[in-house]
Amino acid sequence: MLKMENIAKVYRTDTVATHALRDFSLYVKEGEFVAVTGPSGSGKTTFLNIAGLLETFEEGQYQLDGIDVRDLGDSARSKLRNEKIGFIFQGFNLIPDLSLFDNVDVPLRYRGLNAKERKARIDEALEKVGLAARRHHLPSQLSGGQQQRVAIARALAGKPAFLLADEPTGNLDSLMARQVMELLESINKDGTTIVMVTHDPDLARRAQRNIQIVDGQVSDFDFGQSRRA
Ligand code: ADP
Ligand code: ADP
């Protein structure tokens, strides 16, 4: 589970303090698929970056699978992130001159896995996203939707408990967006908890639960609903 209570996050420059999150509380249970919407600048990316242990916070409590994140040092935070979290971004963030196989391999190389284990994970992840046959291709040889599926494979290869997605369909046309959404739904059915920021109300509606962030706070808790067919 992912449990935030009364989180405050302030970005300071010499002259300005921006309260990106204030009194922010959210509980995501294991196995949920949560869609996060809200106006531009409301704190969605800040929330995701804190959830993914990319950023720290000033006040409040954050527990990830029962581990109190607040007081972890940098290396313990990185270790927990590597163990638990996979990220997907709007811009795919693939390395242009590496094959799909080698792109998926990049984060695995940091984990001290041997070549055989890495290959098994890469094959399995590329299989899951339907691109095993293209493993030797470069990202530029793929459509945007396919590139995002490679980015998803890269996240999956780390076997994360949580997949955090920041506008994963923002650069895709609606057909490719639906395909990526279907893939995320399938990954969620396999047991991965997903939190997805999106501007697309049609995609948000397909998640199990919608929350809205307004002005750095959760404005709309929608617990009961399960809209999925
Ligand atoms: P959203 O993802 O909903 O568009 P963000 O989380 O990116 O919102 O931003 C929330 C607020 O924090 C905005 O006012 C934004 O300008 C500010 N902010 C985000 N990152 C930084 C930063 N690194 N330095 C200063 N202000 C920031
Ligand atoms: P936006 O949320 O403004 O539409 P993106 O989805 O491209 O933009 O990126 C969202 C956020 O994710 C950015 O604020 C950035 O700080 C963060 N981000 C993007 N790529 C990476 C990365 N490789 N590692 C860590 N953080 C990243």
From TrEMBL:
GO terms for molecular function: ATP binding; ATP hydrolysis activity; transmembrane transporter activity. It comes from the Bacteria. The keyword Transport applies. InterPro entries: AAA+_ATPase, ABC_transporter-like_ATP-bd, ABC_transporter-like_CS, ABC_transpr_LolD-like, MacB-like_ATP-bd, P-loop_NTPase. Residues 2-229 form the ABC transporter domain. Transmembrane segments: none annotated. This is Putative ABC transport system ATP-binding protein. GO terms for cellular component: plasma membrane; transmembrane transporter complex. Belongs to the ABC transporter superfamily. Macrolide exporter (TC 3.A.1.122) family. PROSITE patterns: ABC_TRANSPORTER_1, ABC_TRANSPORTER_2.
